[in-house]
Write a structure and sequence with these properties.
The protein is an all-alpha fold and 88 residues long. The model has no long low-confidence stretch (mean pLDDT 92). It is elongated. The N and C termini lie far apart (34 Å).
């Protein structure tokens, strides 16, 4: 992994792309937000906030493994959110 800056960018891009996919679904299906799509967006924002909070944590012992775990958490959360979008 390159740096903390790149990890933050990855988190931002991945979550942003997921939210954009929800908006595209809304435009192509109902034309307006639904409770399900709003729930997915809220969950994506909460995931983003949680991951950024973990990245900014100062009291970690092994930074390398900490950041690798955050990267894995991002991948798992993104896959779950994409699965929810696909289920719509």
């Amino acid at each position: 992994m390159g740096s903390v800056k790149n990890l933050k960018k990855d988190i931002n891009y991945v979550i942003g792309d997921i939210i954009e996919a929800v908006y595209l679904y809304e435009m192509t299906s109902t034309g307006r937000p639904t409770e399900a799509t709003n729930g997915i967006i809220d969950e994506a924002i909460a995931t983003f906030d949680g991951l950024i909070k973990k990245v900014n944590a100062k009291n970690v012992e092994n930074k390398k493994s900490h950041y690798k775990q955050i990267n894995k958490d991002l991948e798992v959360a993104a896959n779950q959110l994409v699965g929810k979008i696909n289920a719509l």
